[in-house]
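Q: Give me the 3D complex with adenosine-5'-triphosphate.
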Amino acid sequence: MDLKIRDLHKDYGQFPALNGVSLDIRSGELIALLGPSGSGKTTLLRAIAGLEIPERGQILFGDEDALSKSVQERNVGFVFQHYALFRHMKVFDNIAFGLRVRGRARRPAEAEIAKKVRELLDLVQLSGLEARYPAQLSGGQRQRVALARALAIEPQVLLLDEPFGALDAQVRKELRRWLRAIHDETGHTTVFVTHDQDEALELADRVAVLNKGNIEQVGTPDDVYDRPETPFVYAFIGDSTSLPVTIEQGRALFEGSPLPIGAVDSPDGPSRIHIRPQDVTLANPDDAAVHGEIIGLRRSGAHRRADVCVGKARSRIEALLSPETDVSVGERVGLAFKGFAAYPQDPTPPKLGLARAA
Ligand SMILES: Nc1ncnc2c1ncn2[C@@H]1O[C@H](COP(=O)(O)OP(=O)(O)OP(=O)(O)O)[C@@H](O)[C@H]1O
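A: Here is the predicted complex, encoded as structure tokens.
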């Protein structure tokens, strides 16, 4: 079942939560809606489910107009961040619920429901726990029950709203891999809301990056990370810091001096050079065009991160260093850049570059 969303608008009073969103979701695809808090992810998911009525636009399930259908008719499976399991029902009955409440004509026989529930318990690796109540399960187990319950109705589309948001980091990571494996096994068209970029990049076939009710970019994890189309996507996905520059005939001038990053394919005028911490290397301060003072050093997983203050405006540039790098706070260092992105003040189009020594 593929999904087409066309020019969707949803306002809350004067506030446009969705501002003309268009998105094609392919059958069997796992797509992540990624964006900061308030960017419209949940509103878009709820509009697909039929829980929000948009002011304008179109939602097609295959070739059928979904907006003229009720929530029930759309037959979507929904999993929320805060497990909405029925507390007074055992795991088995929670999973069976969606099948049991169907009208008589569509309701399977109880033996068939039991078979389906057992298959799902197996799929979500909870066999043996069917007689427990939700209160007797861990958070991760409850979310797996919620997923089994959503899958029981054989939904046309599976919608997941930060399903692991309330869980601790280790459990989140495990469930992420587990969800991907289940998706590969069942092949449901799945829309997954998250504000966690690692989760989106690791899990999804494609990522739609939302900002202020608009989609800024849709692409594979590699597309959005390596080829961000807007400064927002560059800054939101992956770490980066930036320097104010002036572009003059393809050269980037930082406080009047040319940066040794080669030609910048960007219009003349004020601009910013954005740099990822892993693209910053330390150099001899007497030879480097950009130099500054280390104002902070901290351990970050397998690396060390250094904050370097550069120029008269004391712009902050972050560098990712090997833990053995022998530097200390207060030290003067030079900086070289292996890669960068330049965005004119008027933010399109982006120009990504590989820095070359001048
Ligand atoms: N029922 C409502 N009434 C008024 N404003 C709302 C309502 N629901 C959402 N909004 C506003 O619409 C915007 C988008 O909300 P939405 O929940 O879709 O964002 P989100 O990207 O899912 O955020 P989060 O990651 O925090 O859940 C927000 O600014 C929010 O305050």
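A quick observation: The pocket of adenosine-5'-triphosphate is lined by residues 12, 15, 17, 35, 37-43, 195 (CB under 6 Å).
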